[in-house]
Amino acid sequence: MDMIKCNIRRLMADQRIDDISELIRMSGVSRNSINKLYREQDIETIKLETLMKICDTFNVRLSELLEYIPDN
Asked: For the domain that residue 21 is a member of, what is the CATH number?
């Protein structure tokens, strides 16, 4: 099955963001959306606008936040 890998945990660690609540405050993104990314569940349902806010918060490209892994 194709998979989308999210690097939000690594980005949080790199920037010393200790918990999801801190990321919510910094980004203005809902807890529900951040939880989906953090748990790597239903990522495909997250709006592009939301992903862009998170990228802006971390100052990264979308390709650094998400990685598409096709089936072999």
From this structure: 1.10.260.40
**pLDDT 10s per residue in the chain (72 long)?**
568 999 999 999 999 999 999 999 999 999 999 999 999 999 999 999 999 999 999 999 999 999 998 887
Burial 33-42 (b: 16+ CB within 10 A, else e): bbebbeeeee
- Name the nearest CA neighbour of 27 among 72, 65, 70, 67: 65
d(CA 14, CA 58): 10
| Entry pTM | 0.89
Number of domains in the chain: 1
